[in-house]
Write a structure and sequence with these properties.
By secondary structure, the protein is an alpha+beta fold. It is built from five helices and 18 strands. It has one domain: Clavaminate synthase-like (Double-stranded beta-helix, 4-Layer Sandwich). An eight-stranded mixed beta sheet has the order 1-2-3-15-7-17-4-5, with helices on one face. The protein has a four-stranded antiparallel beta sheet with strand order 6-16-8-14. The longest helix has 15 residues, at about 220-235. The protein binds N-oxalylglycine and manganese (II) ion (MN). Manganese (II) ion binds next to loops.
Length: about 290
């Protein structure tokens, strides 16, 4: 087995093959980390990972972040507080074993409502529906590079408010007051264009659409500008839909991607285990 890296699309994603993530040499790990920085997401297929293996691989990237607060709080497998379960499956009391249900998850980057969002998240596929539930990735460095100059000028030096009220499934986070006012909503302010701390490449940093606001504009101006930025960013040429197979692990860089999920049959089972790597710093503004 020799490690091989192939691009997933010309703008985003790398597939790494010829590795067993439970038995990784330091050189193989360095190659995966490098591909993650340069390609924004990394796909590794045909893995057989226990929760301990998933944690050990995740911890090679640094300290882990606790799971996000979702519609029912933080849901982890018993004894694994650093793992977060994404699933529509119900337990024997009829309670979901994970977050996000079976509906669509709208475009977002993880936990950008925090001052220091996680550098990375990874999902490992344990059970999958026969169809649906694809996870899409958007390359935000390519989206920024191709942004019309007029839009670049409108966001230069500005910050965006990132909302912590609703998750990507449209659910209210546990214990949070509902609001549609970006100024009252919990969340964090981040530069609209951030520079990758390792590669220096700038990326558009939008977070999520709902309750977003660009500083220095009236609410109506901000809405119109956000609509234009979002319409640009999620064009097919910057995105890729990942069709999952059991044993797939996908690791993404929250600083240079957004992701979303297609809905799937609610009576089918989908079980994913996720970890998130703590942010190494606040997102850094791009000085254009
Ligand atoms: C996530 C997420 C989408 C999916 O775990 O952060 O957005 O495909 N998941 O389950
Ligand atoms: Mn997510």
């Amino acid at each position: 087995m020799a490690l091989e890296i192939t691009p997933v699309t010309p703008v985003v994603g790398a597939q790494v093959s010829g590795v067993d993530l439970a038995r990784l040499t330091d050189a193989e790990f360095a190659a995966i980390r490098d591909a993650w920085h340069r390609s924004a997401f990394v796909l590794v297929r045909d893995q057989k990972l226990s929760d301990d293996d998933l944690l050990a691989f995740s911890r090679r990237f640094g300290e882990l972040d606790p799971p996000p607060n979702q519609e029912r709080g933080r849901i982890s497998p018993p004894g694994y507080p650093d793992i977060y379960v994404v699933s529509n499956v119900l337990d024997d009391k009829g309670e979901p074993i994970g977050a996000l249900g079976a509906g669509e998850a709208a475009w977002h980057t993880d936990m950008s409502y925090l001052d220091e969002p996680p550098d990375a998240s990874m999902l490992y596929a344990l059970e999958l529906p026969a169809s649906g539930g694809d996870t899409w990735f958007c390359g935000m460095q390519a989206a920024y590079a191709a942004l019309p100059e007029e839009l670049k000028a409108k966001i230069r030096g500005r910050r965006i408010k990132h909302d912590g009220t609703y998750n990507s499934g449209g659910y209210l986070r546990q214990g949070v007051d509902p609001t549609d006012d970006p100024h009252k909503a919990p969340g964090a302010w981040h530069p609209a264009v951030c520079v990758h701390p390792v590669t220096g490449v700038p990326a558009l940093y939008l977070g999520r659409r709902r309750n977003s606001y660009i500083e220095g504009y009236t609410p109506a101006e901000s809405e119109a500008l956000l609509d234009a930025l979002w319409a640009h960013a999620i064009q097919a040429r910057f995105t890729h839909a990942h069709r999952w197979r059991i044993g797939d692990l996908v690791l993404w860089d929250n600083r240079s991607t957004m992701h979303r999920r297609d809905p799937f049959d609610a009576t089918a089972r989908r079980v994913m285990h996720r970890t998130q790597i703590k942010g190494s710093a606040r997102p850094v503004a791009y000085a254009a």
